[in-house]
Specification:
alpha/beta; globular; 15 strands; 4-stranded parallel sheet; single chain
Length: about 280
């Protein structure tokens, strides 16, 4: 009789372990691309250079901060997603997106025609255009034509690098284009006279010149080219529904004035005003 009691006890314990194992196998970390699901936590994996203030930068504690960051955090919170950051050189970010290592990119990504052919974008969350950063004493550069024979810095692989390369090829290849892996030192290069100009987004340039007190200025009021900015996602059926919900939340932030408040907090120029059609 004692043996039968112990046998029954062992069987009961075994059943408990089996049931516990079955229950735990149904949970895991989910990502926005639909490849995995989760009942506990959903994760939106975001890639960035981490060095493009005021849109994104990393503080002394390694925490991401900036306009893009706060927009994503609000959208993620509304949809029930936590943001997981991956930082890398900008030139490799889209390769990571293509490979499925991240779900989207936060680096003030321009919605160019070339990118639209390959990726699906969220509704725009910022609007601006390209400008030239020059030394405050420089009165010679007043148009893109004045860059001929000059040394001009660009961020390697971004849309402004491509724009300037194409313009240069169509206009005699007289601009000395100097690519950089990040923009952290390029503004100082212009201030020190090692670069004649640097091409950047106007809202970024205006904010950096103001915040860092640099002896620089924008070449003029006109944009070299206009851009709308959104978050890119790999084009797929499984991303469609998520992207619709994601874009709807951005639209809500635009309509209730939240984007304007974030722009006032982070940028020297209002980034929420759409371009005139």
């Amino acid at each position: 009789m004692k043996l039968k009691k112990f046998s029954g006890l062992f069987i009961l314990i075994g059943l408990i372990f089996v049931l516990a194992a079955c229950g735990s196998s149904d949970t895991g970390n989910g990502s926005a691309n639909g490849a995995e699901t989760s009942t506990e936590k959903k994760v939106l994996r975001v890639g960035s250079s981490g060095i493009y203030p005021p849109f994104i930068s990393v503080d002394a504690n390694g925490k991401a901060q900036g306009y893009d960051v706060e927009v994503l955090e609000l959208v993620g919170e509304a949809l029930g997603y936590e943001i997981e950051w991956t930082f890398a050189e900008f030139s490799g970010i889209f390769g990571m997106l293509n490979a499925g290592q991240i779900d989207t990119v936060a680096n003030l990504i321009a919605m160019t025609e070339q990118r639209r052919e390959k990726y699906d974008f969220s509704t725009p969350y910022a609007y601006s255009g390209a400008t030239l950063v020059v030394h405050e004493d420089n009165n010679d550069i007043k148009s893109i034509e004045d860059l001929k024979g000059k040394k001009v810095g660009v961020l390697l692989g971004n849309n402004l690098h491509q724009f300037l390369e194409e313009w240069n090829q169509a206009n005699g290849n007289e601009i000395i284009i100097t690519p950089y892996q990040d923009v952290s030192g390029t503004y100082n290069e212009v201030a020190l006279g090692r670069l004649d100009a640097f091409i950047d987004v106007k809202i970024t340039a205006a904010s950096r010149i103001k915040d860092e007190g640099l002896p620089l200025k924008l070449y003029g009021e006109e944009y070299l080219i206009n851009f709308d900015y959104g978050f890119p996602f790999v084009r797929s059926e499984e991303n469609k529904e998520f992207l619709e919900a994601f874009s709807a939340e951005i639209q809500k932030l635009q309509e209730d004035g939240t984007l304007k408040k974030l722009s006032d907090k982070w940028s020297a120029i209002d980034v929420t005003i759409p371009h005139e059609k």
